[in-house]
Design a protein that fits this description.
With 252 residues, this protein is an alpha+beta fold. It folds into two domains: 111 residues, no CATH class; 132 residues, no CATH class. It is built from two helices and 18 strands. Helix 1 runs antiparallel to helix 2. The two termini are 20 Å apart. It is found in: Bacterial flagellum basal body. One of its GO terms (biological process) is bacterial-type flagellum-dependent swarming motility. InterPro entries: Flag_bb_rod_N, Flagellar_basal_body_rod_CS, Flagellar_FlgE/F/G, Flg_bb/hook_C_dom, FlgE/F/G-like, FlgF, LlgE_F_G-like_D1.
């Protein structure tokens, strides 16, 4: 009885945790540059003893959730006409500065200029260039090239007076070394800043959408709900069997 109860309990707990991951993905189906979080189950046998002897008996197998990482499949790119919007074509990341002064990476390219004249993202995090935080001249007309070059034209100046302000820091570290933080930003596994990669290209005046498939996410939610119902049903059956066993023992 103990085996059934605890096995079903661990299964229902992990089904709820995976449901939370799927729900978060679905909630971000329209978030710019969002990368879906992946999750799966794994079986963990539990045995008497310390597991060092072949005589240790496996009494039950628990279920634990495993989060292998994120889905790095590119999302759809849509033109917006906004000169400050950029979408990364293929692999790569935009570098931003976090609140603690560190460096993190995102695919969300919906940028704007704040009151201090700095280029920031939608979360008001400073966008980094090859020379550090990107600052632009007040009132200047900004354009961003495919290689991340930021050009500025001061009002009243001729088109030939365009000046290069900076170049966006575009990186492309190994996805297997990337980790997602609670703030939704990605970081390298060792915490060190990644080197700029000139091979990363942008689609100017465009934004990349989320790579979450809403239909697949809805199917996954239904599947997790069914799994949870099955596990709770096993718990109910175990409780009924336990009560029946107690009644039989009381008659003896």
């Amino acid at each position: 009885m103990d085996r059934l109860i605890y096995t079903a309990m661990s299964g229902s707990t992990q089904a709820l945790e995976q449901q939370a991951i799927v729900a978060n993905n679905l909630a971000n189906a329209s978030t710019t540059g969002f990368r879906a979080q992946l999750a799966t189950f794994r079986a963990v046998p539990m045995a008497f003893g310390d597991g060092s002897s072949i005589n240790d008996d496996t009494t039950r197998t628990f279920v634990l959730s495993s989060t292998p990482g994120a889905d790095y499949t590119p999302g759809p790119i849509q033109q917006t006409g906004n000169p400050l919007d950029v979408a990364i074509q293929g692999p790569g990341w935009l570098a931003v500065q976090t609140a603690d002064g560190g460096e993190a990476y995102t695919r969300a390219g919906n940028l704007h200029i704040d009151e201090n004249g700095q280029l920031v993202n939608a979360m008001n995090q400073t966008v980094l260039g090859n020379g550090g935080p990107v600052s632009v001249p007040p009132g200047a007309e900004i354009t961003i090239g495919k290689d991340g070059t930021i050009s500025a034209l001061t009002p009243g100046d001729p088109p030939t007076a365009v000046v290069t302000v900076d170049q966006l820091k575009l990186v492309n570290p190994d996805p297997q070394t990337m980790t997602r933080g609670d703030d939704g930003l990605f970081r390298t596994g060792d915490g060190n800043p990644a080197d700029a990669d000139p091979a990363v290209t942008l689609a100017p005046a465009s934004l990349e959408g989320s790579n979450v498939n809403p239909v697949s996410a809805m199917v996954a939610m239904i599947t997790n709900a069914r799994q949870f119902q099955m596990q709770t049903k096993l718990l109910e059956n175990a409780d009924k069997n336990d009560q029946s066993a107690n009644q039989l023992l009381s008659f003896s």
